Amino acid sequence: MDDHALARDLASAARDLLVEVRRGGLSGRELGREGDRQAHELLVAALRVHRPEDAVRSEEGGAVSGGDGRLWIVDPLDGTVEYCERGRGDWAVHVALAVGGRVVAGAVALSSGKTWWTGAPEPLAAVPERRPLVAVSRSHRPALVDGLAEVADVELVPMGSAGVKAMAVCSGEVDAYVHAGGQYEWDSAAPVAVALAAGAHASRVDGGPMVYGNRDPLIPDLVICRPELRDRLLGALAELRARGVSV
Q1: Is 78 labelled as part of a ligand binding site?
Q2: Coiled-coil segments, which residues (predicted)?
Q3: Which one of 12, 86, 149, 158 is most buried, counting C-beta atoms within 10 A?
């Protein structure tokens, strides 16, 4: 099985497990902790079987040494807050492979049952002419992100889970996803891999590349967008940062 298919199968299996855990009797933080734990254990155990020489970095378990430059980056449950809220579906599972700092394979398994993956990338969906829609965090909204609505003339759309927001760009539900104020490698690696494979732009808010496998896993900001919006959004973000607007 190649790396793309492995990412797809593991993300899908963890998502299906999380659905079953959610159907049990747990609720609130206890549900989130148990879902995170079981999905993490499934992913790490499977990677040790299928790619025993590779390193693994998980939100729930740190990094496993080794890998000769190959690093699997997984988020067993992205959108834990939303997962714990009955009736919400904006959570996902992320599985990605980075080689030499660049994501080369990945999958985002959505709670809906759909898994987006790099082995069979879907091109960006066509969208109607409209004021650009930008997905943003429900809970982490620094002034830099809020300032976009004015400077770039866009409409902000709050959503949970980085994976859900990135896949909303791919599906055409929104035109961009912008985040600032704190994320880690496991939050963005798989969404970036899938979005790039679909033909989207992905970078830091200053236009710099997304680099993975760093000693410090913090990657605090992110822009994923339709390529025709790249200059508009990065220009607006540069203007806001020049004004001293906080990230």
Answers
A1: yes
A2: none
A3: 12
d(CA 60, CA 76) in angstroms, rounded, equals 8
pLDDT of 141 over the 80 cut:
no
pLDDT digits (tens, 9 = 90+) for 234-245: 999 999 999 988
- The answer to whether the annotation marks 36 as part of a ligand binding site is no
* Residues paired with 110 in a beta bridge: 92
Which tokens hold the place of 123?
């091109």
CB of 65 within 8 A of CB of 56?
A: no
Residue 59 among known ligand-binding residues: yes
Residue 75: band (very low, low, confident or very high) from pLDDT cuts 50, 70, 90: very high
Q: Which fold has domain 3-117?
A: Fructose-1,6-Bisphosphatase; Chain A, domain 1 (3.30.540)
Say if strands 62-64 and 55-58 run parallel, antiparallel, or are unpaired: antiparallel
Is the pLDDT higher at 160 or at 188?
Answer: 188
Which ranges of 110-229 does DSSP label H, i.e. alpha helix?
Answer: 143-151, 162-171, 185-198
Using alpha carbons only, what angle is made at residue 124 by residues 155 and 136, rounded to the nearest 5 degrees?
A: 30
For CATH 3.40.190.80, the residue range(s) in the chain are 133-242
Residue 53 is labelled as binding a ligand: no
Contact 43, 74 (CB under 8 A): yes
Q: Which architecture does CATH list for 133-242? A: 3-Layer(aba) Sandwich (3.40)
